[in-house]
């Protein structure tokens, strides 16, 4: 019922957030977590979510109110990067982890795990706008994050043997990306979370509609846990923390030495844990911070900018930041 009430018409206005409503758990199937739409009432772009099978296959391609969604990342997403991985991007991620352990989404799909397959889609914006002109480039920006202690999120792509950073909360990772294609674009990327806990990603989409530059902001909530969310085993998130200990230090964890097998479902050199693999989370403290080393200007962050289609419009991201 929570997912049914979270549905929206693709050209509807974005409702105000309501903390009292029941939340819809998005835990399986394809979902374009970041999706842009066109509000035909206000004639403005809206940033939201286009979901598929996480509710049921009868509702593929449905727009959902992102304020009513929790994106679940569970035990079947737990992977272990090899310490011998040579790619510099994977090495950067590895350095932030405990012995290479991440909660991982594959660019090419969920495989046989039954987990969520998150991507992005800008096409509904152009379809909804009809004859209204919309610039072929939508800039998607990660403007802020709430995360567990030492928690980071990384989004990156791969073409052939080459990885490319897309968005990430860590220092030296891009904070915005240009998504360019006439009529909109649909794509997927790798995701890695390096700690269990609650992540709130503050995202912003910017483009030109008609002669006006428009932007839309949205907060996306991810619950990263050791539970098997593919069978509906959701953690109790009402407390101050879960899967964690009480100090704010990085502890040494014992990994499962008997699980050395390489995953055949992923093109990155990873190891998949068994269901009993447990990582302490250090989640008692949630930090709301700008990026390490960021220089604040006009309440904005001076971040790097990476273009998926060759455009590189670097510069100040003007926005509201909770620090």
Q: How is the secondary structure organized here?
A:
Elements: H1 2-5, E1 7-8, E2 24-26, E3 29-39, E4 44-51, E5 62-64, E6 69-73, E7 78-81, H2 88-95, E8 101-105, E9 116-121, H3 123-129, E10 137-148, E11 153-159, E12 162-168, E13 176-180, E14 186-188, E15 190-193, E16 197-209, E17 212-224, E18 270-272, E19 286-289, E20 296-297, E21 300-303, E22 305-307, E23 315-317
Parallel strand pairs: 2-6, 3-9, 6-17, 13-22
Antiparallel strand pairs: 1-5, 3-4, 4-5, 7-8, 7-18, 8-15, 9-14, 10-13, 10-16, 10-19, 11-12, 11-15, 16-17, 20-21, 21-23
How does this model look, in words?
This protein has helices at residues 2-5, 88-95, 123-129; strands spanning 7-8, 24-26, 29-39, 44-51, 62-64, 69-73, 78-81, 101-105, 116-121, 137-148, 153-159, 162-168, 176-180, 186-188, 190-193, 197-209, 212-224, 270-272, 286-289, 296-297, 300-303, 305-307, 315-317. The longest helix has 8 residues, at 88-95. By secondary structure, the protein is mainly β. It is built from 3 helices and 23 strands. The chain has one domain. The radius of gyration is 19 Å and the shape is globular.
Note the main sheet. 8 strands, mixed
Could you state the oligomeric state of the chains shown? single chain
Mean pLDDT: 79
List low-confidence stretches. 238-323
Q: Tell me how many strands there are.
A: 23
The N- and C-terminal alpha carbons lie at a distance of 35 Å
The helix/strand order is: HEEEEEEEHEEHEEEEEEEEEEEEEE
- Form type: globular
Work out the strand percent: 35-45%
| Class from helix and strand fractions | mainly beta
Query: How many helices?
Result: 3
Q: What is the number of domains?
A: 1
**Proportion of residues in helical segments:** under 10%
């Amino acid at each position: 019922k929570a997912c049914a009430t979270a549905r929206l018409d693709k050209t509807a206005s974005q409702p105000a957030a309501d903390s009292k409503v029941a939340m819809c758990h998005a835990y399986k199937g394809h979902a374009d977590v970041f999706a842009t739409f066109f509000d035909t009432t206000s004639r403005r772009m809206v940033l939201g979510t286009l979901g598929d099978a996480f509710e049921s296959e009868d509702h593929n391609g449905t727009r959902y109110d992102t304020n009513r969604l929790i994106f679940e990342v569970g035990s079947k997403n737990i992977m272990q990067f090899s310490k011998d991985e040579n790619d510099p991007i994977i090495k950067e991620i590895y350095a932030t982890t405990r012995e290479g352990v991440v909660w991982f989404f594959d660019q090419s799909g969920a495989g046989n795990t039954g987990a969520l397959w998150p991507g992005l889609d800008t096409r509904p914006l152009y379809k909804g706008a009809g004859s209204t002109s919309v610039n072929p480039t939508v800039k998607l920006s990660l403007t802020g994050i709430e995360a567990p202690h030492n928690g980071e999120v990384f989004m990156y792509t791969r073409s052939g043997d080459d990885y490319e950073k897309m968005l990430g909360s860590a220092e030296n990772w891009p904070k915005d990306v240009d998504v360019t294609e006439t009529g909109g674009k649909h794509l997927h990327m790798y995701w890695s979370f390096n700690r269990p806990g609650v992540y709130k990603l503050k995202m912003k989409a910017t483009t030109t509609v008609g002669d006006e530059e428009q932007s839309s902001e949205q907060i996306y909530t991810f619950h990263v846990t050791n539970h098997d969310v593919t069978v509906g085993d959701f953690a109790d998130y009402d407390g101050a923390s879960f899967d964690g200990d009480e100090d704010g230090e990085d502890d040494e964890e014992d990994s499962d030495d008997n699980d050395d097998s390489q995953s055949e479902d992923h093109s990155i050199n990873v190891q998949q844990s068994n269901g009993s693999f447990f990582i302490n989370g250090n989640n008692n403290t949630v930090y709301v911070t700008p990026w390490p080393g960021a220089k604040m200007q006009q309440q904005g962050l001076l971040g790097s900018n990476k273009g998926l289609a060759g455009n590189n419009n670097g510069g100040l991201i003007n926005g509201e930041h909770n620090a």
